[in-house]
Design brief:
Blueprint: H1 2-7, H2 12-33, H3 37-48, H4 53-60, H5 69-105, H6 125-139, E1 143-144, E2 150-152, H7 153-156, E3 176-177, E4 188-190, H8 196-205, E5 209-218, E6 229-240, H9 244-259, E7 264-269, E8 274-283, E9 300-309, H10 311-316, E10 324-332, H11 333-341, H12 354-357
Parallel strand pairs: 1-5
Antiparallel strand pairs: 2-4, 3-4, 5-6, 6-10, 7-8, 8-9, 9-10
Helix pairs in contact: 2-3, 2-5, 3-5, 6-11
The chain binds zinc ion.
Length: about 350
């Protein structure tokens, strides 16, 4: 009796095996149709959930005759594992497709280069020239002094020995400042040079003194090589026994450390605050002395003005001009930046055009 049951058409093992085949076919069909998350989740719970078909089938193995249990249990487990991994693969493919679609929708072009949040900054050409020059003079024992940009007429002109009728004191050249308290209009000016810092430093410190004074200066002037605001650096050295030889040695050494080895010449010139005065030229940086547009075919470019400090200045600052002598020099930083990088127009430096400035 028992044999006919186990090998007949109602054999529970054979029944499960047949059902397993049907389930598998059903699973494949549903999986092939599944298009979204919900469908995939439904398949998961229908087959593998607590009340899923395969879970129930695993449980029914317990009701089989004991000799069939291991074989059928194994068969069911194998099918279950195979179908589970098939489902996982499909879920992963589906997730990947969803990500691709999202990226396409967001119009994010992954092939574009990244956008930097902050552009890297750099020192402005004029500031760079100023730091380099200050460094050179610092190595020669000069320290940095500063003074106000809105200056008293006294320090800007009178104390520097400018006579009252000097053309520089004309309204055409100088910006006069009307102070809020209504003082006489000619008392305050935007300083036209860094030379007033000489006077202030000598008044404060006396002699000996060795300073440089870099800073902004202002004149009513504007064309390709002039700007109403520009930069100068003033050099002052006062001590016992300072002679014109010291002036020549210091300035030649500065020019050659900044521009490299080249010819330097001194031409007599006049400035009210020095005696004697000189203009200093160096061999053109562009053509090396052959003659070009920059040096107007002369082979030389003017680089600074200098001279021995006028005794009147020393005395007015309370320095004994019998005991002390000194030299002073002034140079335009903007002009030096033009020469350094071969630029033809000063305005380039102040247009704040990063495309241009970043080339330097
Ligand atoms: Zn030249």
């Amino acid at each position: 009796m028992s044999e006919s049951i186990s090998s007949g058409p109602t054999d529970p093992g054979a029944e499960i095996a047949q059902k397993l085949g049907t389930l598998r076919a059903e699973f494949e069909a549903k999986l092939a149709e599944a298009r979204d998350d919900a469908a995939l989740q439904r398949i998961k719970s229908d087959f593998f959930g607590p009340k899923g078909e395969l879970t129930l089938m695993s449980r029914s193995v317990g009701q089989l005759p004991s000799e069939q249990r291991p074989v059928m249990g194994k068969a069911i487990n194998e099918v279950k594992r195979a179908l589970e991994s098939e489902l996982d693969r499909k879920i992963q493919d589906h997730e990947a497709r969803k990500r691709d679609e999202e990226l396409r929708r967001s119009r994010l072009d992954m092939t574009l280069p990244g956008r930097a949040l902050h552009a890297k900054g750099a020192v402005h050409p004029v500031a760079r020239v100023m730091y380099e020059i200050s460094d050179i003079f610092a190595r020669m024992g000069f320290s940095v002094a500063t003074g106000p940009e809105v200056e008293l007429d006294f320090y800007n002109f009178e104390a520097l020995n400018f006579p009252p009728d000097h053309p520089a004191r004309d309204m055409q050249d100088t910006f006069f400042v009307r102070p809020p308290d209504g003082r006489a209009i000619k008392d305050l000016v935007l300083r036209t040079h860094t030379s007033p810092v000489q006077i202030r430093a000598m008044e404060r410190q006396g002699a000996p003194i060795r300073i440089i004074a870099p800073g902004r200066v202002y004149r009513c002037d504007q064309d390709a090589t002039h700007s109403p605001m520009f930069h100068q650096i003033e050099v002052l050295c006062v001590d016992e026994g300072v002679s014109f030889a010291h002036l020549k040695g210091t300035l030649t050494s500065f020019i050659q450390s900044f521009f490299g080895s080249r010819g330097v010449r001194f031409r007599p010139s006049f400035f009210p605050f020095v005696e004697p005065g000189a203009e200093v030229d160096m061999q053109c940086t562009m053509c090396g002395g052959e003659g070009c547009r920059i040096c107007k075919q002369t082979g030389w470019v003017e680089i600074l003005g200098a001279g021995m400090v006028h005794p009147v200045l020393l005395e007015s600052c309370g320095i004994d001009s019998e005991r002390y002598t000194g030299f002073a020099a002034g140079l335009g930083l903007d002009r030096i930046a033009l020469l350094r990088w071969g630029l033809d127009e000063l305005a380039h430096l102040y247009r704040s055009d990063v495309r241009f400035l970043s080339q330097i």
